[in-house]
Amino acid sequence: MNLRTALLDVRQMGEADRLTTMAGKSIYELMERAGWAVRFEIERRWSKRIVTVLCGPGNNGGDGFVTARLLANAGWVVHVSLLGSREDLKGAAREHADLWQGAVTPINIASLGRAELVVDAIFGAGLSRAFSGPAQEAMAAAVERKLPIIAIDVPSGLMGDTGESLGAVASDLTVTFFRKKPGHLLLPGRSLCGEVVVTDIGTPASVLQEISPSSFENDPGLWLAELPCPGEGGNKYTRGHALVSGGYPTTGAARMAARAAARAGAGLTTIAVAEIALPIYAAALNSIMVHSIATSDDFRRLLDDSRFTALLIGPGAGIGDDTRSRVLGMLKTGRATVLDADALTPFQNDPNVLFSAIAGPCVLTPHDGEFQRLFDPGGDKLTRTRAAARCSGAVVVLKGSDTVIAAPDGRAIINANAPPTLATGGSGDVLSGIILGLLAQGMEPFLAAAAAVWLHGAAATGFGPGLIAEDLPDLLPGVFRRLQGQEEK
Description:
Structural class: alpha/beta
Helix content: 40-55%
Strand content: 15-25%
CATH topology of the largest domain: UDP-N-acetylmuramoyl-L-alanine:D-glutamate ligase
CATH class of the largest domain: Alpha Beta
Radius of gyration: 26 Å
Number of domains: 2
Number of helices: 18
Largest sheet: 11 strands, mixed
Shape: elongated
CATH superfamily of the largest domain: Ribokinase
């Protein structure tokens, strides 16, 4: 996969530092470059003013001492406060602290003084205990005074692997190094980091080959080359045939999903509906075909048609035995299948029946409530989604503002482009339809799910306020056009 958007957990980042030092760069040099990067990002955004740099007892504090020295050399008024004493600092952090010629005071609320900007260099991403005491009180006071806060690596108290807060306060800017960590994207971490800037401090990209990261930030660079594109000589049959199981009396969800599948590129899209619902679907759809189903045998015979290349059930399906039977029938075909919403709940008492039936490419798209009915709800979001994909044998898309897409082999992608306007009824149905449309054209399930999630967010962002779910399918062509232009550059 494209390593440009790789995410490194705390252990992997430590390994990257180790490999970098083996390649000839010292921690002292990396720390110096980190301080230069922080100074540069501060000076890009703020004019000279009084700065308080709050330093911790480890390497994060060493970065803070470098930042303080460089800002002072550039004419800023800088005060430094330290958690602990200089004598407790070790290695490169101590060396850089010794280069600071000014006073060093203990961290407490009073250490903010007349500060007009605060640099948080207390704790980095590896903190695993509660952030409390005078240092946390000083950070909370900075927030109360509405001072701009610049965090080095992560806001102190934010767990880099999970995004969990152990007492962190919101920063305006977070400057991190080499690659982001999962905690920069997972909530609440993403909302606490403010603007995140990743800077190059000399870590060679080649270290990623040895680390072999398996977590990534969602980005077209991961899947754009695999995105289906109509070619000369193709026709509607070569672009795949998507089948949606339509519900009744809830009909809008399946209709939106089918329209999204068509807009995502499926050459043909069919909705299978109960006879009583046929007039509703037929009156509301033009290019989408509607197939009437009178009995369960009719549905089974429909699935025997090998021209269907991908299947979807869930939107508006209801949670009864009929839905359960249709899910198992779809999975039995071995064709690419998307299970969303109501398709998951019928298995809440015996999820292993569902998992053992997954015989081909499959994507599950639960929100948190649906997820908890099938899987262990414990652990952070990234860990939970990975475990769910592994035990189910399916690609799992755990939806939310920080959607996580995980494959059974352990690969995971965290999405960060979803705007708050997607929190509207039916948007999940559209997402499942986009996944269906990409699968129908033969796209691999993990990348199809990641692409669909990103496309979904990009479409919503392009529309802005006032979005409703039925707007989304017709916004996709504009997103595809922009991506095509990006690919051609």
